[in-house]
Amino acid sequence: MGTSKTHETLKVQPFTDTAKDGFEPEKEAKDNDDKDKKKEEPSLPPVAIHRLFRFASSRDLFLIFLAIVAAIIGGCSMPVMIILFGDLANTFVQNDLNVTQICVGIPLCCDDTPAINLDLPNCNVTEEDLGNFFINMNFLEQITTFAQGTALIGLVNFIMSYIFVTCLNHAAECQVFKIRGLFLKAILRQDIGWYDTHQTGDFASRMTEDLNKVQEGIGEKIGMFIFFATIFIASLINAFVHGWELTLVILSVMPVLVIATAIIAGSQTYLTARELKAYGKAGSVAEEVLSAVRTVVAFGGQTKEVERFENNLHDAKKAGIMRGLLTGIGGGFMWLIIYASYALAFWYGVKLIMDDTEDCFEDILHCDPRYDASSLLVVFFSVLMGAMNVGQATPYVEAFSVARGAAAQIFDIIDRVPEIDSSSTAGEHPEKGAGNLTFRDVFFNYPSRKDVKILKGMTLDINKGETVALVGASGCGKSTVIQLVQRFYDPLSGSIMLNGKDLRQLNLSALRERIGIVGQEPVLFGCTIAENIRYGRDGINDSDIEQACKDANAYSFIQSLPKKYDTLVGERGAQLSGGQKQRIAIARALVRNPDILLLDEATSALDTQSEGVVQAALDKARRGRTTIMVAHRLSTIRTADKIVAFEDGRVAEIGTHGELMKMEGVYYGLVSAQGIQAVDDEDMEEEEDDVTELDMVEQDIFDKGKGNNRVRTESERKMSVASSILSDDSVTMEDIGHAVGSAVGFSRVPSLQASFYKRQKGSFTDTPLESPDEDLPKVSMIRILKANSKEWPYMLIGLLASVIMGASMPVYAILFGEVLGVLSEDPVSARDNVSYYCILFLITGMVVGIAMFLQISMFTLAGEHLTLRMRKLAFEAMLRQEMAWFDLPSNSTGALCTRISSDASAIQGASGSPLGTLFQSFFTLTISIGLAMYYQWQLGLVTSVFIPFVLVALYFQTKMIMGSDSVQKEAFASSAKLAIEAISNIRTVAGLGREKTFEELYLNALRQPHMDAKKRSHVRGLIFGFAQSVPFFAYSGCMFYGGWLVENQDLDYKNVFKVAEALILGTMMVGQATAFAPNYNKALLAAARVFKLLDRKPKIDANDATGLRINDIQGNITFSQAGFHYPTRKEVRVLRELNLAVQAGQTIALVGPSGCGKSTCIQLLQRFYDLHKGVLTVEGQNIQSLNVPQLRSRMGIVSQEPVLFDRTLAENIAYGDNSRTASMDEVVDAARQANIHSFISSLPLKYDTLVGEKGTQLSGGQKQRVAIARALIRNPAVLLLDEATSALDTESEKVVQEALDKAQKGRTSITIAHRLSTIQNVNRIFVISKGRVVEAGTHNELLARKEGLYAKLWGSQTLSK
């Protein structure tokens, strides 16, 4: 069986319907790959905390140690400050103690004034004894001590905070930089089988999200946790030391608060998950609809989709409102408990102080008071600060847990040593010129589908220099052979040998260096043509590149480009046609000078003309090399030295084309199924001579004067018209999975949604999804409020509640000052007054609690209604736009989804909530400043100096604590995209052996952000240090000046505390509130974008109420002097004075080279675009005057890649007519007409079977027939078939073609086809070239013109006998 003369014939099995439908083993293994990937992978246990630092250098560890020490010292400074504050209060109180009160305790030592006189005869109290009760001190000296001590603590806090934040961020950045490089290296070294069984989309998030989470978990958050935890522990110790009894009483309310908070937090988590799930559903609807907007619009599904979108939004709104209500309840209850604890603490604390005071009055000589003003304030503020800081420390525990979980996945991949290791240096190097391949009894199945056997004992010999073609039905194992040769997988049993040596014994990198591969959809990277070719081999010079391009028939078209080899090819080669991409891929393969050339369906996705040029390049490339070809178009392999026919995972036949045709076996069956007539060898030779001419025609299509601008190929147009350029956050597992995880062929399944990059100045950078926000309308607050006007009662209540919240801090300051003032009164008065003030604290707590509840819940209600309204209006407005709008890069699917989700929800950040924050902040500051001026204007002015500093400090600190910008995600977006590009195209990267190249590119892209991040760590340290220290300086200055006023201007000391607390605490509260408030500027920008969209009038009005309605559209269509260019490519003229007429009931076909304008004609008919010149008429009426929905309702479209929605088969078919509800009988009837009913009936759920996202659960042929049924259910007058079979294998094409032939009967049909055999029976064929009709006639009439373009196209698709 090793030669072309000796072969074994196996009986040909008839093609079953199963095979036709595409449920073959290999195909099924791939088609169900997404399903398998969606199964959750077993979660790994989180790594131990110390293991998070396994990649830290000794320098990093030193910085971490230094940071921990600094955080502990910084944390201890707060309790010290509280002690000083307590002593200060004691100083004020002692200074104000009434002499009369003292004389009550020592009447024998007081005269009649009354005044203390220790010289009286009966007085037995010494000055030393009196010192126990009344400290005779220098008041100002004590005040100065407090001011200096507090300022010193502020300075220490500043230095320590700066040290721990800077050191930890610096160390974390260095560690994660190292981890990023190791992670990408580990991913790229994994074997392809591992990719098949893992969610490759996860790598995109792990390169960004997970590594950012690790960085946050090992960075400043460690220091923050230690800092706040230290404050908590030290404050609690401080409280117990200064008064354990009072501490326990205050702590008694904490369990209530903790339990209530836990219950509410749990409920919030549940509701948030529900809300996100609902928004996720709505988002998936939006993504599905916008990515298939042409299908939605063509079948009039806009209203239905808006309703479906809105239904999901209602669920999200309900969950959001409930979450807001719970948040309001939680916030209100928290404030009530806080004020209740104030009341309890002050009531019980004053009671203890007065008890001790009375004891001292009774026996001043033996007086040892347990509690005084100092201990009361130290205990109170220690417990308060401890509770606040434990709350601030808690979120960081979650950050560590998240980091440990994220690190587990990352470290697991880094530590994994693959079975097929591309980075291994082990193994022999294959000898130069090796090319004898031997397959011996090879058994194989893909790791992702171990139950599906692909190769079942395959044996084959391929001699050096031979060209061997592999043919067979889909799923028989052809492409598997290609991948086994590259050692992407190892066989389960049997062996594959190169020159007698098992591939497993050879060095993997060296083996792949000897192999060149060209696939169906070659992957080009987002750089220049020259750089793409250099990926083929290291160390090549310009002459090597030029020679490879000449050998690949690419030289002439490259020379026609303005920048020649320096032309950027665009994302995945999007700036080039399919033929041009293929030839660059061939050049890249040839520059390797490979011993073995693998061609996996290298021309199957090309049009006839491009195929001829590329095939000529391939024929040239395979000379003198061992070549293995896989092809569906059998015309491309007729000159092979040996054709190997596969069946059921085994070799069925071997021979030349002529030999196998005579055998009438498997190969003969495949040729017959393609239905193309045979021609003589002489005709074949003539056709080969035409390649140069065809190449010239293709060159003319490219606009030589316009740089990278070119006529779009059919396949690329489908990319552009679907607006598939995605935003960062919209690259999903399924998207990358199509490109990476497919089990068959490194590009067998085109990646419709891929990561997009642009290389400028030699480095990869982001392609902006949106142009800078230019030409955005200025949006006033009034317009935003008008959009929210229906919810005005909610907003009014919310604003009133905000005013009350604004007054809460000044009221607290007044009550706090009054309670301190009580301490200098006699015990009876003190007890009465403190009870009164504590009742006021409770009342204030209730009022503030209700206000907080109303503020949060009312604004949430208003905001959720606004968000739903704006999302619906934005989505509705998008579906009104003309197709040219969707072609703009700024209106890609990802960008539009982001606009719907982010922008629409961000608008509420400029509506009720910021108004509430503004009102609250305004009233807090106004009342605080007013109080300060009322009680002591001089002290108020001095304290007001600190207001801006405290505001700014607390604003930035709160932003930091919220986690904002701790990792500059945008800075790493470019490098992450580069990594994802390598991962998503792993088969290409591995096949070229470019793993190290991409590692280096990735690290180079990371270096600048890495350096910037290290510099930024200093800025963050300064901000946090400044924020921590400013309140200390403010208290220092305020209390010192207040003390001076008490001493020199007889100011009542309680007024000092009222002014200080009102201004400083009030300002701190305002700073935190503004930081937590939504970003107002961001909200205005979002509003501008949304309102610009809502205000935009589409250039093609698809309103059902406008335009002329024609009662009976039959299909009389005329293009007269039609001129057209796509709005996004105005310099490229697609149609040039095209004249074409279609009569009702005719079946016509449009043929011609890529970019000539065939698909454009169909889109103009659907009124996706309008002509720029000339006239297009339907039934004699200018199409621009007709009612657009009615016009589209009379047309049915079936395209090359039909878009099905993630619904049932019945719903997908019924989608063809959205003007009514189609009955089940109609659905079944349409399915029968489309040859799909029998298949559907064989499924367990029949018509209720879900087709999966974009129809992934169906084969290509099945999807096409569902699309045909969808088109037929509307009983269209005009049927539009845009390359409806070009992407199918032979068997599927035959079944689908039968359905199409049946569907065309009795109606006007317009067909675009690359496979000319499918249109030879139409009434009329129009040959289009350069935007004009150059030939028209029947198939036979056009063939009679030997020199005509159609005859040449036909000749290039025929098989020799």
TrEMBL record:
Keyword Translocase: yes
Regions crossing the membrane: 61-85, 146-168, 222-241, 247-271, 325-348, 792-814, 834-862, 939-956, 1021-1044
Subcellular location(s) per record: Membrane
Gene3D superfamilies: ABC transporter type 1, transmembrane domain, P-loop containing nucleotide triphosphate hydrolases
Enzyme class: translocase
Pfam family, one: ABC_membrane
Protein name: ABC-type xenobiotic transporter
Lineage of producing organism: Eukaryota, Metazoa, Ecdysozoa, Arthropoda, Crustacea
